[in-house]
Amino acid sequence: MNALNVAEYTHTLGQQAKTASALMAKAPAAIKNKALKALARLLRENVEALQIDNARDLERARAAGLAEPMVDRLKLGPKVLETCAEGCEQLAAMPDIIGEILGMKQQGSGIRVGQMRVPIGVFGMIYESRPNVTIEAASLSIKSGNACILRGGSEAIDSNKALARLVQLALAEAGLPQDAVQLVQTTDREAVGQLIAMPQFVDVIIPRGGKGLIERISRDAKVPVIKHLDGNCHTYVDDPCDIAMAVKVADNAKTNKYSPCNASEGLLVARGVAADFLPKIGAVYAAKGVEMRGCPQALAILQSVQGAQLVPATEQDWSEEYLAPIISVKVVDGVDEAIAHINRYSSHHTDAILTTNHMHAQRFLREVDSASVMVNTSTRFADGFEYGLGAEIGISTDKFHARGPVGLEGLTSLKYVVLGEGEVRT
Description:
- The chain has 14 helices and 16 strands.
- The protein is of the alpha/beta class.
- The strands form 4 sheets. It has a 7-stranded parallel β-sheet, with helices on both faces. A 4-stranded parallel β-sheet has the order 5-4-3-6, sandwiched between helices.
């Protein structure tokens, strides 16, 4: 496609999405749920066919020299597809929140004022690698009564096209407009530039991918963006705490999986428990090959740990999102210094305190300025599915509208509704 054709093409997608969004907004819950159940069935019926399309993406990725972990993210195996199907069924089983009225209150004038939950309208989603995001985004869009335009990575184009066809079949089967979910069919990067600059059609953009992608979209978009740039999450081990529990949680927060944005990248330890706690967690990390980049006090205590990979921390380490078996370790005076450190260096994604002191826990919850703040549990729980949202379309570290995992509610807005019986203002 040349630039003019790309502009015309994305303009057409926008017009079609806008038209479809009006029909989706008034679709009954039973019809939306019918589409989701049909999509779950179609995914299960087409496992083999989807894997043939997926194989073309995998072959291209390996030929292009893509690293094996990245190739792995492209795979649409039976297990991944079953998870997608189950996600659709879980969403179908959830209550419909569209049209619910919140906080209706009688005013002195006689009028009653409340807020109604309504769809956002049209959202554009730009994502990389994982083709299962196509189903996550489509299913959330259907349940929330929105229309969406999806632009997946060029490395997954065949898989995404095949999945999008199934979504449109499911929409048609339920009697909903097929244009309610549209996939950008071109890999031309100009399509992204057009999509993020159509405020007449697109109400919000949701990027999901690497920092470079998200920075570019945040910089160039002419519509609001729901995003997070980094996942520099922290686990703070307080004085007092349950040391055994703290070792278990700090281990899980770092090593359960290294690549997600909710893995802990920083470990803060109160001075009063450092000599007891650090050798224990150090032995766990050493056994799993996790490099520890520590402050002088942390390194002095960790020196005794056999096989530990120890590196002096630099100023940059406190802000770093490693996405790898590396963690920064700092000994702090207590809860005050921990909160100050987190508010300065974290990416305001997810931060946790491990403590047996109720007042410290309450202060941490109130004073840490992050989208998710936790007490006595792993940062790895910062996830829409784990939060009971059914699914998530991403995580937001913004403060307006949606914050934290963005599920159904994050894809809606509130409008004021006012009920009267002939009252007039005096």
